[in-house]
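INFO batch 0412 | record 1 of 1 | parsing
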Amino acid sequence: SLKTLIPHTDGEKLSKAAILQQTAEYIFSLEQEKTRLLQQNTQLKRFIQEFSGSSPKRRRAEDKDEGIGSPDIWEDEKAEDLRREMIELRQQLDKERSVRMMLEEQVRSLEAHMYPEKLKVIAQQVQLQQQQEQVRLLHQEKLEREQQIRTQVSARTPPQPT
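INFO prediction complete | emitting tokens
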């Protein structure tokens, strides 16, 4: 009856020892597949729980499996380790957020203290630019007056014979 349950090619002659060996290998492969599927199932349930918000107690009850070779204890320990790690990561994230918020507040405070200084510097730069522009305009007016005077003088003076 074991021979009918294990995968083999039809018409293959197997000894009782070979049947037992293949049965053991088949059971082992089935247990590995079951463990892989349980892990995948647990991961999918976690994703569902994250998106739907179901309670952890309900989730633990859903995770139980009463089959032969069930890795319940191993799965529970692994799940507990993952929960602890996730809690630690959330705590670290919360600390980092609070430190970041504190630093951002300090930057805003420093900028508020520095801002009047920046305004003074900008005002001084604008004032200097205005003074430079006034000097340039005065110089340009002077040059224009000198040019007008030269033009008037040359218009009054008769041309010199060559």
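INFO post-check: The helical segments are 2-5, 16-52, 56-63, 72-156.
INFO record closed
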